[in-house]
């Protein structure tokens, strides 16, 4: 019950152990097509350029920045936690300029501040933000932020590593342009893959680049030769076959459950956990309206030793919860309810184990 990776369902672990076949095998290629279709469902998009990058969420992040930004470009970046900071780092490493919109940790991104930054920087090409900040547990209003990007002629880059499969996410309806995620959170798959999706506008921007994408591995133009619609399936890199079996299984499971039902399950489990924690006098960091059901940040009660409690939970109850990151280190616990971890028996275990640890 940490901030990810979440528990992996036995069906997904079983899929991981299937015999490895070649990355050009017709059966494998058919599965790749299914993965793309299932990812479109998870992202709620018809974007043709929708695929899993063969590396973790950070690579999906980097894929979005290196493909959309060129040296000399400008990006407005919202920073309300660790991962917004990482986005700034990506922008500068592309040789572009980052305009930061900082927000107090634990709060969602402030659309008024973003609007002001976009007004003041009419030459910005990109607006980047994190939908679900795993370091704080805050949910930002992705629809409003994507809308602001559109109104100012910017492409949006949206981090959905923790949101995909856990809370409502509508890539097409919200007109998000470059969206990346991870497999290890609400999809309950093993870590190491990063689903991404690019709108037609984002693809047009990639095609119109003056400089080649500085990363060979993450250059979407090259990856498309293997993953693209009607592509020749030309060798680009050896696909992580077994990891893709696992992703396929997790997406099939998401489809079986139904996306809305998965969102609902996360919300219901969150309410049960919140009731239990609040009955112990434990308080949430994030205001109710902006709380992520899948990542519950709570203040460590006065007089309680952070590391000792987490160590006790792990050794005595075989239960992991997350420590605070950055500004929140030593002050906050992060309790994950992601994917297969978002189950009632886990909540009961957590409440029992935490009461025991704090006695
Ligand atoms: N973005 C967010 C919001 C995350 O929570 C994480 C990982 O926890 C990442 C990006 C990076 O993903 P990964 O650790 O898979 O590289």
Automatic annotation (TrEMBL):
<feature type="modified residue" description="N6-(pyridoxal phosphate)lysine">
    <location>
        <position position="185"/>
    </location>
</feature>
<protein>
    <submittedName>
        <fullName>Alanine--glyoxylate aminotransferase family protein</fullName>
    </submittedName>
</protein>
<keyword id="KW-0808">Transferase</keyword>
<keyword id="KW-0663">Pyridoxal phosphate</keyword>
<keyword id="KW-0032">Aminotransferase</keyword>
<dbReference type="InterPro" id="IPR000192">
    <property type="entry name" value="Aminotrans_V_dom"/>
</dbReference>
<comment type="similarity">
    <text>Belongs to the class-V pyridoxal-phosphate-dependent aminotransferase family.</text>
</comment>
<dbReference type="InterPro" id="IPR024169">
    <property type="entry name" value="SP_NH2Trfase/AEP_transaminase"/>
</dbReference>
<dbReference type="GO" id="GO:0004760">
    <property type="term" value="F:L-serine-pyruvate transaminase activity"/>
</dbReference>
<dbReference type="Pfam" id="PF00266">
    <property type="entry name" value="Aminotran_5"/>
</dbReference>
<feature type="domain" description="Aminotransferase class V">
    <location>
        <begin position="21"/>
        <end position="324"/>
    </location>
</feature>
<dbReference type="InterPro" id="IPR015424">
    <property type="entry name" value="PyrdxlP-dep_Trfase"/>
</dbReference>
<dbReference type="InterPro" id="IPR015421">
    <property type="entry name" value="PyrdxlP-dep_Trfase_major"/>
</dbReference>
<feature type="binding site">
    <location>
        <position position="334"/>
    </location>
    <ligand>
        <name>substrate</name>
    </ligand>
</feature>
<dbReference type="InterPro" id="IPR015422">
    <property type="entry name" value="PyrdxlP-dep_Trfase_small"/>
</dbReference>
<dbReference type="GO" id="GO:0008453">
    <property type="term" value="F:alanine-glyoxylate transaminase activity"/>
</dbReference>
<dbReference type="GO" id="GO:0019265">
    <property type="term" value="P:glycine biosynthetic process, by transamination of glyoxylate"/>
</dbReference>
């Amino acid at each position: 019950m940490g901030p990810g990776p979440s528990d992996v369902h036995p069906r997904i672990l079983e899929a991981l152990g299937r015999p490895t076949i070649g990355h050009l095998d017709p059966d494998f290629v058919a599965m790749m097509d299914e993965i793309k279709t299932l990812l479109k469902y998870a992202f709620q998009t018809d974007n043709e350029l929708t695929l899993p990058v063969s590396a973790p969420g950070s690579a999906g992040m980097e894929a979005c920045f290196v493909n959309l930004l060129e040296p000399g470009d400008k990006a407005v970046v919202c920073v309300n936690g660790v991962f917004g900071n990482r986005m700034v780092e990506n922008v500068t490493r592309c040789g572009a300029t980052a305009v930061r919109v900082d927000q107090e940790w634990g709060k969602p991104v402030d659309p008024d501040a973003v609007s002001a930054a976009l007004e003041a920087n009419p030459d910005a090409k990109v607006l980047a933000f994190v939908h679900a900040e795993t370091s704080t547990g805050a949910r930002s209003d992705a629809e409003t932020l994507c809308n602001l990007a559109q109104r100012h002629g910017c492409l949006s880059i949206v981090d959905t590593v923790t949101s995909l499969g856990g809370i409502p996410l509508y890539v097409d309806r919200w007109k998000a342009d470059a969206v990346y995620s991870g497999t290890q959170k609400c999809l309950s798959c093993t870590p190491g893959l990063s689903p991404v999706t690019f709108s037609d506008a984002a693809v047009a921007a990639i095609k119109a680049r003056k400089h080649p994408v500085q990363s060979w591995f993450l250059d979407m133009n090259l990856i498309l030769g293997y993953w693209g619609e009607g592509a020749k399936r030309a060798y680009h890199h050896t696909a992580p076959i077994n990891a893709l079996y696992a992703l396929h299984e997790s997406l099939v499971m998401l489809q079986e459950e139904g996306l809305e039902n998965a969102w609902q399950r996360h919300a219901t489990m969150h309410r049960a956990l919140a009731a239990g924690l609040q009955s112990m006098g434990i308080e949430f960091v994030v205001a109710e309206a902006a709380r992520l059901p899948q990542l519950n940040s709570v203040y460590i009660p006065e007089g309680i030793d952070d590391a000792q409690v987490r160590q006790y939970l792990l050794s005595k109850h075989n239960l992991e919860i997350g420590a605070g990151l950055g500004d929140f280190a030593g002050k906050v616990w992060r309790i994950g309810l992601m994917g297969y971890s978002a189950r009632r028996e886990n909540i009961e275990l957590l409440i029992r184990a935490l009461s025991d640890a704090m006695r």
